[in-house]
Amino acid sequence: IRDLALAQGFDAVGFARAVLKAEIFVTENPEAAAYIYLQMVPEGAPRGLGIEDQVKAVMVPIKKRMDLYSPYEKSAKWGAISQSEMRDERAFYKLEGQVTDAALGAMYTNDLIDEINNFDREKIKAEARAFKLPYKN
C-alpha cells in the first residue's frame, strides 16, 4: 500500500498522521484551532465582528464535531477499522448481497495504522495548550 501511494506521489502515513495531529490539537485547544483556521481561510469568518467574536462563531461547529474525532471503538487506534464496522457500513448503504466480505476486506487495510499513530501525542497537546492567541493577554 505504501509503495503504491508513494509511486503516485502521495505519502499516506504522513497525510493521515497530519490529520490525526490536527484532530488532537483541535480537541486540546479548539479556540486556537478556530483562530488558526481564520488565519488560513479569512473568508470563513463572519463579517462585521472583531477577531475574538469571529473565533467564537467558528468554534460552534468545531465543538459540535469534536466527538467525531475519537475512534468509534474507544480501544481502537485512530484510523483503524474492523471488519464488523465495514459490515455495518455495508448494511447502512443496503449493499448486503452485493458486496461480499472478501470485497470488504479488499477495500481497507490496517497495515499502516501503527505507523500513523507512532508519534508523541503529549507534545501536540502541549503545543496546543501553549499556543498564544494574539487577542488575549
Largest pleated sheet: none
Strand content: under 5%
Oligomer: single chain
Average the pLDDT over all residues and give the rounded result: 89
Envelope shape: elongated
Distance between the termini: 48 Å
**Rg, alpha carbons:** 19 Å
The secondary-structure class comes to mainly alpha
Secondary-structure element pattern, one letter each: HHHHHHHH
Helix content: 55-70%
Counted by DSSP, the helix tally is: 8
The number of strands is 0
Uncertain segments: none
Task: Describe what you observe in this structure.
The chain has 137 residues and is mostly helical. It is 58% helix and 0% strand. It has eight helices and no strands. Helix 3 (30-40) packs across helix 4. It is elongated. The termini are far apart. The model has no long low-confidence stretch (mean pLDDT 89).
For this entry, give a set of tags.
single chain; 137 residues; mainly alpha; 58% helix; 0% strand
Topology of helices and strands:
Layout: H1 2-7, H2 12-28, H3 30-40, H4 51-65, H5 83-92, H6 101-107, H7 113-116, H8 121-130
Task: Please give a quick description of this structure.
With 137 residues, the protein is mostly helical. Helix content is 58%, strand content 0%. Helix 2 (12-28) packs across helix 3 (30-40).
